[in-house]
Design goal:
Length: 306
């Protein structure tokens, strides 16, 4: 070979190629000698490889397989810029808005149904056959004779009335009848003895009254006004416990059971505003008489009509 041309000018490369050419020529001359020796050497190295691997950790590290490639994580994008995240958030927002809209429509529908029902009840034409009344009152007492310094506690009266003629229009003044329960309590002095008293008046009632027509029958809550002037005669019951040390003539602090004290007459007047078709509230004032004492009272009343 000519060494002065091309890349054969490098002495190291020239020596390498000389050795390769000499080795190839030797194999071509003596194939029967070279092949068995080469195969034997190759088999020996293959059989000795496991032993060498177990004995030399450094050799294991040199021939170990490279680790699998690790996929780089996808770049993080803000939810507002990532189209997938953005669409997911939009779907969730639409789903939440849909639920809220359904709930709001359900609440509005129920509220409207309740309002329509209340309006229908308020506009319903009622016969006003009667009513019951509960009053919260503050009484005062005027006494005579051996009584003095009577002070009354707050009390409640209960009464109920029916119209005498159901076939008449309630907007026309007409007769009513009913029952009244009127307790009074407090403390005072009688026969130079100071003690508490408790009296309950019970008796029939007769009245004259009128329930007006609604101001605006087509409104959502038509209102009407009513008045009633009533009176009657009542029996009295003394319910207070008496002082055991008290002895003397009968008084307001002694006795139990029902009794009649002349004149035991009473009268009262009430003004009522009726709303929601059957609920009333208003003002009441009246007078209750008994033997040697007269009770004056005034307060608020709550009524239910039917």
């Amino acid at each position: 070979m000519v060494e002065g041309r091309g890349w054969f000018r490098d002495p190291y490369i020239s020596f390498y190629w000389r050795l390769r050419v000499r080795k190839i020529s030797t194999i071509c001359r003596f194939p029967g000698r070279i092949y068995p020796v080469t195969l034997a050497a190759l088999g020996f190295r293959v059989l000795a490889l496991p032993v060498a691997l177990s004995a030399s950790p450094s050799l294991q590290a040199q021939i170990a397989l490279p680790p699998p490639p690790v996929a780089e994580p996808a770049p993080s994008f803000p939810a507002s810029k990532d189209p997938i995240q953005k669409r997911r958030l939009e779907r969730e927002e639409k789903k939440s808005e849909g639920k809220k809209k359904i709930e709001a429509e359900s609440i509005a529908r129920r509220s409207q149904e309740a309002a329509d029902k209340a309006k229908a009840e308020a506009q319903e034409k009622r016969p006003f056959y009667g009513f019951f009344d509960l009053s919260l009152l503050k009484p005062a007492a005027a006494v005579s004779g051996s009584r003095s310094n009577y002070h009354c506690d707050m009390t409640t009266h209960l009464s109920t009335y029916l119209r005498m003629f159901f076939d008449k229009d309630p907007s026309i003044a007409q007769g009513w009848f009913g029952v009244r329960v009127a307790p009074f309590g407090g403390f005072g002095t009688q026969n130079k003895v100071t003690a508490r008293f408790a009296m309950t008046f019970l008796g029939p009632a007769i009245a004259v009254g009128r329930i007006g027509i609604p101001d605006d029958p087509l409104s959502d809550n038509p209102t009407r006004f009513a008045w009633l002037w009533s009176g009657g005669v009542a029996a009295m019951s003394k319910l207070a416990r008496n002082d055991e040390s008290f002895k003397g003539a009968p008084s307001d602090f002694q006795g139990s059971g029902w009794a009649y004290e002349s004149p035991a007459l009473w009268t009262e007047v009430r003004w009522t505003r009726i709303t929601r078709g059957a609920l009333g509230y208003g003002f009441i004032t009246g007078v209750q008489t008994a033997s040697g004492k007269t009770f004056y009272y005034a307060g608020l009343s709550a009524s239910g009509f039917y």
